[in-house]
Fold DUF2388 domain-containing protein.
Amino acid sequence: MLRTLLAASLLLACSAPAFASSFAGTTGGASSAGSSASSDSSSGNDKVVLQARDDAASFVASEGRIRGAQLEAALRHLRERNADARRASDMELAQAILAL
């Protein structure tokens, strides 16, 4: 059930113009400090998760033995922003990333 919910949440997030209020997102736009750093924007958040797809594939294919840096960053990113992701296993999240 949780795995289905995670996959559905990530798929819905990808079909939205921005990842706002999804696993991979925050509210889009410039930071209140006026910083030009793109890591605070929703497009920067999308990138963290999408760039982890190859690492997620390796992780799933190796049954969790191969843990790439991009996957680790995406898992941390997702869990910081979403309660469902905090309850999910690394494998569930990696599979959900692959479903994007």
Remarks:
- The chain has a mean pLDDT of 74.
- The helical segments are 2-15, 42-50, 53-61, 69-81, 83-87, 90-98.
- The chain is about 60% helix and 0% strand.
- The longest helix spans residues 2-15.
